[in-house]
Amino acid sequence: MGVERSPTPRASRRSPTLLNLFEKDSKAKTGNSNNSKAAALFGSSNNSKASAGAVAEDGNEDMLSMISYCTFVFTFIDPQESPSQQDVKRLKLAQILSIVKTLKKPLTDQVVKQLVSMIAANLFRPLPWSNFFAAEFPDDEDYNATSPSPAWPHIQLIYDILLRLVLNMDPKALRPFINQTFLTNLLALFQSEDPRERDNLKNVYHRIYSRFTFYRSFMRKSMNDVFLHFVFESERHCGIGELLEIWGTIINGFTVPLKEEHKLFLMRVLIPMHKPKGMLVYHRQLAYCVSQFVHKEPVLGGVIVRGVLRYWPVTNCQKEVLLIGELEELVENIDPEQYRKLALPICTQITKCSNSWNSQVAERALYVWNNEQFVKMASQAMEEVFPVVVEGMEKNLKGHWSRSVRQLTENVKIMLEETDPALYSSCVQQLELRAIEGRQEELRRKERWERIAEMAEEKKHLHVRLSSECILGFSLSEL
């Protein structure tokens, strides 16, 4: 009896509200045609339960009508667009979201097809030109003054609907509709300048990767193509940080030993991503991905360290500060058996940074010596490392302009002297001998140049005298 009474209140409940809303729709005829098709498609196959079938048919009709209305995309700049129509669309999107959230049985293919088409119509749109280089300096006023999109209230609901659809439905049932083309267009939206959209997109894309296991290889390759295009061609993309966050969770789930495919991704994609000048924006996410590889296989630390040193900046002080911190973290996690091989190149680079005229770079490099693991690594190749480090310390003490840098250098010098006083003294003596030899060589070079100048002067006088004699001889012959 309860099933038989249900159609009456449902019809009376929706008539005064939805009907009035539909009358405002300029495309009511299209909606009605969709409703008739939906009614023909979703008819009940069980004749003994005709009332229940009518209820299901009526619900699908409402759903298709709302989807049809929401397929229309507002520009929010056209004066002919009514704010009331925009509000109606937002309410209908909220209703669709509520239905998808409380889904008790799977949606039919027709409804899912129309729903995914509506999502694509709203999301897949041309994005404005992105000023990625302004994002290198988040404190920049022009970058922070970016006005929010007026369409965001609608777009946010669309992302919520897509997320709930992915979470609540069987991936195999969604596979015909959420295909590789859909995923490619979804990936292109990471170019959006709106951080809210990129955050929602990151959540949706990661959920699809997690549930749609048959698309994982394709999605990884697609993201890698974005990274490679960014590094070697454009160096302009707003969503690199969000994509690296997705990759961070992916790497975290890798099994050990790592596959060759994943190692190639590290060497050919992640390590070169230290090169672009926009690295400041996504360095935190990049360092996390790299550290995950080292946690999985500490032997890869040597490859990563050499790669970071290869892409070390020359004039970008902010990048240098970040990379010094990354090197310090890598030293804490790499295989101790590689300490002796890596001690000299790492300490050489850290010493160069400690001699930098930029006080922030120099101080950050000197603070590295407070790390016990770094000192332990340096001690593995003391005879090779000490001459380089001692030379850098003495150079700072004699000529660096910053008082704080000189003070930190003095502290490091005391620590090194306590570690091995004899070796430190020997390195200082060698420096003094090289300095004396350098001064002597400079004197010899100066003497050689003076002799060359004298010889040139003598040759000049000789040439003038010969020229004069030739001119005099020619004059006498004429007489």
From TrEMBL:
Molecular functions (GO terms): protein phosphatase regulator activity
Biased composition (Low complexity): 1-17
A GO BP entry: signal transduction
Gene3D superfamilies: Leucine-rich Repeat Variant
Superkingdom of the organism of origin: Eukaryota
Region feature (Disordered): 1-41
GO annotations of cellular component type: protein phosphatase type 2A complex
Functional note: The B regulatory subunit might modulate substrate selectivity and catalytic activity, and also might direct the localization of the catalytic enzyme to a particular subcellular compartment.
Protein's name in the database: Serine/threonine protein phosphatase 2A regulatory subunit
Organism for this UniProt entry: Kalanchoe fedtschenkoi (Lavender scallops)
Organism classification: Eukaryota, Viridiplantae, Streptophyta, Embryophyta, Tracheophyta
